[in-house]
Amino acid sequence: MKLSSREYKILTDEIKKVEKAESRLLFRRKKRKDDSPGFIRKKIPEKTYLTLESAFEKAFRFIFNKGGGIIEKTSQLEKIRLQSEEFEESMHRMVHEGTIKAIDNLAASSAQNSKLIGTADGSILGIAGMGLPDIPIFLGILLKTCYGIAAGYGFDYRDPKEKKFTISVLKMAFSTGEAKAEYSRQCDELARAMVMREAVDWEVTDEEIKEVSSILATDMLVAKFIQGFTVVGVVGGLFNYRLVHKINVSAKLKYKKRSLLNHLHRIQTESS
Q: What's the helix, strand, coil split of the chain in %, to 5?
């Protein structure tokens, strides 16, 4: 298939839009010092933080490695994948703004569903107080959001390569400053390695599990989920929405960018 000048412009214009949105996200003005993760982290007793970090690691390891089936049953990931395949076939025939918009809407609808579930669960949990046993629920919501967006853009979270990419997206979503920019670069490097079929160790290591768990635990504290206080009612829901929103924004940017670059590379390869 030969790439027309119009199709090339459509793809490159969309990629530029995504990269511009990425820049806004990565270089957003920093918050006040007393709102920073490092500042708040110093205010938390070491024992409290280590307990939380350990709980996150155990829960995340289980859900990430063995919880896919449960997430699949409580979502419409298979339906989203089938719809995405139809859009992908359409893009193979001809690149069109309407199809790109339809793919965006599919990914957005999946993310919105997780937002609503997350906010409701957060409010319910807030009534009883946010405790350690609730961590798996929150992690499941975050992964469900990420998996749904991935499926909307034509990627299967069950693929070992995609698991590695998911880890980088999570780290980017819940980091700040230079760390956020570095994890964004990691996402782009993995994406390039997949499309170019470069030799990469795709196994998710224990160190990566610990790293993302630590980042999530710190962000939870910054969001004031668990600080030794009871989070009541709607407040819990609002904070939960904030976390889902973070993964929603980062996942949409990275998976859409991958999808567009994949189409551009495929068509250029086929037409050469």
A: 80, 0, 20
User: What is the chain's length?
Assistant: 272
- b/e sequence 54-92, b meaning 16+ C-beta within 10 Å: ebbbebbbebbeebbeebeeebebeebbebbeebbeebe
Token pair in block for residue 73: 């049953």
Quote the crossing angle between the two packed helices 233-271 and 177-196, to the nearest 10°: 40
Residue 268 exposed, middle or buried by CB count within 10 Å (0-12, 13-18, 19+): middle
| Residue showing tokens 């995609």 | 162
Rg of the chain on CA atoms, in Å: 19
Residues 267 and 7 sit within 8 Å (Cβ to Cβ): yes
Q: How far apart are CA 241 and CA 222, in angstroms?
A: 14
Averaged over 190-199, what is the pLDDT? 91
- If one compares 90 and 247, the residue with the highest pLDDT of the two is 247
* 230 pLDDT tier (thresholds 50, 70, 90): very low
What is the Cα–Cα distance from 234 to 123, expressed in whole angstroms? 5
Closest listed residue to residue 251, CA positions, set 173, 158, 157: 173
Angle at 196 between CA 190 and CA 197, to 5 degrees: 80
Residue type, 188: D
The verdict on pTM exceeding 0.90 is no
* Contact call for residues 170 and 146 (beta carbons, < 8 A): yes
Structure tokens at 168: 């980088």
